[in-house]
Amino acid sequence: MLLAEQPPGLLSRRLSFGPGTYDPDSSGSSLYMQLIFVAMFVLGSVLIYSIRKQILLETAAADESTTHNPVVAVPKSDIEKPLLMALSDNKESLTSSSEKAVDAPSTQMKLEKPADPAGSIGVADEPTILEFCVKGLSYICFAVLIIFLYDYILNEHFPFSAMLSFAQMVFCSFASAVAVFGFRLVEPIRGLTPKVYATKFAPLGLIFAVYLYGTSVPYLYLGAGFIQITKPLQGPVTLVLLWTASKESMTWLKAGTMGLFLGAVLLECLGSEALGTFSLTGFMLLLMGITSGALYYTVSQILLQTADTSIKLNSVTQMLYVGPAASLGALAVAYATGQGLEVWTSEENTLPWWLLLADCCLAFGFNIVVMRLITRFSALTYTLTGYTKDCLIIIFAITFLREATSALQVEGIICMICACSLWSAIKLKKLG
After folding, report:
1. How far is CA 65 from the centre of its chain?
2. Global pTM?
3. What's the pLDDT score for residue 352?
4. Nearest to 309 by CA among 223, 191, 141
């Protein structure tokens, strides 16, 4: 379920964009980027002020409610005392009568606490900050490892990204089948019918194939820089889809914070690479891929969090039931891009079996972590965590690898940290 970031060597070429060339180091481009940063700063300030104001208003409303509805102790008047004495005598008589009664064991009734409806999440089951940190860091670690390994394989041993994705999907489907039916680590879906599979799970695999095609083929038409600044549109699309499915509320605070995320990614990308060539065909294909990716993760969230046990998935069964259809879709994309099965016997394939196995195992673990993150949180949280991952990679490269950076990248990191803090405040305080 992994995609190649870009064809080898594409970033090393500075391509023309429209009538001119975009250069992140030129004075004109730098001025535009500084204006974007100022706009992001103003937006962040407005959001911070709005969140603080809303928290203060809610606190004041709670204090006012407590003030107007105090618990007042009612004094016992002379009229109340005879009534209380009568009630006390009545209680003693009822107690003595109940002691004389003999209850048969067969007729005893036990009061039981009604069970929660299926699929409901109690307070104890609500995700915590610690859980998010653990799952988020696990996702980031897996993502960083697999990105570097994926890039190494494509550049050094096997330059066929679609066929490599096909191999990963086949392995994930096989490994999940062994986990479910061999080791019985999780329970399969009981009573699964061909109609349910054809209408619920197979279309999800086809959506993944469109996602794979729409994010791979545009590299033939567009520059890598333009693709990188367009991909973050998946966040707003995911938010709209979740709102349509009643899985996420839509507020102006969330929309503004999403804009801050997009501005941060824009600054990070434009501060490091050229936009490249533009093509309307490539742009439409890219939008198709972005929309398909958002739809794939949104539908996955619905199937992972549903209360209907006949279609409810978990992080393992998601690959078991969706993986085969996604594998066929990946194979179709491979053939559509000129990467048939014959590439495994071509001279360009120098990939050792143990390295392919390591990559597939890493892909299996990565998908487990991603689906767990979506199950406990949401597809939108997964998307935003991906933005944070890119920011942390840049910070790591600057701090430990001593790589050169630009002011735009630093400004993008500042905006990203601000956006993450605002989104956390909105979620923790339940402001949206």
Report:
1. 38
2. 0.72
3. 95
4. 191
